[in-house]
Amino acid sequence: MNQIDRYLLRNLAVATVFVTAGLSAAIWLTQSLRLVEMVVEGGASLGIFFRLALLTFPTFLSLILPLGLLAAVLFTYNRLIMDSELVVMRAAGLSPMALARPALILASVVAVLCYTLTLFAGPAAQRELVQLRQSVRSDVTAVLLREGTFNDVGSGLTVYVRERGREGALSGLLIHDLRSPGVATTVVAERGRLVEVDDVPHVVVFNGTQIKFRQDNGRTEWLEFARYTVDLQVLRKELGPRWIEPRERSLRDLVNLTDDPLDRQFVGRLRAELHSRLATPLLPLAFTAVGLAALLPGEFSRRGQGRRIALAAVGALVLQSAVLGISNLVGKNPVLTPLLYAVVLLPAVAALWYMVRWRALRRGLTRTVPAE
Fold it and tell me: Which domain holds residue 177?
């Protein structure tokens, strides 16, 4: 790699990092805001919130990297054109393909990174994210987190907590239980603590009073106690077995399907996910080739390359939309699977071919124009 290649590669890499970081920060913020309500209602700590937010990062980073690379290629080469640096390089005998070599090297590196994210890091993060979400939603302390509020935690059970402390400590408790037919039980206690016995949640209350009203005879029973245990099994949200979504599955799981009837029922979705993971990481190469083909061949204009940049951006947008659309269609019609790879690879091949043959094409078009 010569000095010019290193210079171009350095500029492209820096621009890619900054553009990707900016896009990632904006999208990560929107994704994090969606987790706030779940974390607040689920009673998770701030550490769990940041862990959830970080686990969403690999999922969208593989989609942002190709766009960040395209923006970096268009910005960097357009700036070099406006500063006449590419004009000097072209005058020194460098062809469009020679000028494109650093961008293609960087695109190959980004493609490898995208493969790592889509095949390994992304599914692993998605599995961990789903498990952590389930843990938050099934947390026994979730419903009692809201202090100063009457919490309806289940059919016939209401819990009020004046203040919540650390490690399950509670103070100012009121528990109203209508789960027993014909009996209304109210427990008032100064303090209590959440515990789990054999994976069943209980609240142990101290220094309180139990008031039990029997509807059949209208009698009210009072009981003062120093220690009393209330079964809060209703707080535990049982999470039964569920079908693992395609985006949570590893590459091996997508290739080797199980005998689960749901796997057979949704085999199209699983196959679509497999081919999407194999095809979409090639988008950095396609986007880069499209951007280079728009800027490098032909004559440079000091008035700017706005039309070329817009053409490259629209082309990349159409390409991205086509890949997403065909990925969905592959799940319904497997015959379209080769089309998915063709849509990703052919634009890159066509753009590179154009950069090599643009002079011959220009001369051919010039000869076909009739003289006036």
Answer: 144-235
